[in-house]
Every structure is written in C-alpha cells, then in structure tokens.
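Before drawing any conclusions, I needed to go through one protein's amino acid sequence and its backbone structure tokens, quoted below without any editing.
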Amino acid sequence: MLHPLGYSIHILEQSPSPSRSDHAAGITAQPQVVKYFRRHGFSKDSWSIPCPAVQFLGPKATIKRTIKKPLDMTSWNVLYNQLKGRLESLQKENPGEKARMGAGPTATWSFGRRAMDVAYDGNNVKVEYEDLAQG
C-alpha cells in the first residue's frame, strides 16, 4: 500500500526463515480484507474460496444449525504468501543499483528481527529492533 505512494518499505520479520509451516487454520476474510485485496490488485481466486453457508456442528458431527451467508474463506498462510509474493515482485522492480541511485522507493525484507520500539522522527518512522541471530 505504501510503496505505490512513493514510500520505501522495510519489513522486519521475527521469524528467522522466509518459509512458513502450515498452521492449517482456515479463516473468514472479513469485508475489510476483501476490500484491501481488491484495491491492491489481488485476484479473488488467488487467495480465497467461496463458502455458501456456515454450519454449526454438534456431537458426532451432526449439523445443529446452518446460516446461509456467503463468505470468503482463506488461511493465514495464503494471505502471508500473497503479500510476501507482492513484496518479492516489488524487490525485482527495484534492483539494488536503481534503489541506491534514488530512482524510486525500495522494498526490503529482513528475517530474524524483532521490533522493540517504534517512534516518529520528523517525516520518518524509526524502529529499534533486535537482531535475533546476533543480539
């Protein structure tokens, strides 16, 4: 969202690795998520599957109640990987030399970094972080 507006972005990821293990957690994409992904050019079929209704199950998986309300279902991993893929495409658009020459905003991602403090410094955001590998 910030990159097309001309801002350089640097994501600090606490996880030491860019790969994620599957948490197998399905989630409902609320209207704000759907709106965000549409606004930023993600095709709906790349991150969600339609669900025509919600069912509440009782003992022995018997259906106790059904609410017919269409929902968009997804998972944490799908959302994470869609956003990560977008950042990777931004990084390819801004090769190191172009970024160093000030020709456009940069997009970087660092793993193994835990944010410790955030402060505003004029027109910039200052983030203090801990490098988990080196302290």
Q: What stands out?
A: The two ends are 31 Å apart (CA to CA). The mean pLDDT is 83. Strands lie at 9-13, 26-28, 49-51, 54-57, 63-67, 71-75, 107-111, 113-121, 124-131. The longest helix spans residues 76-93.
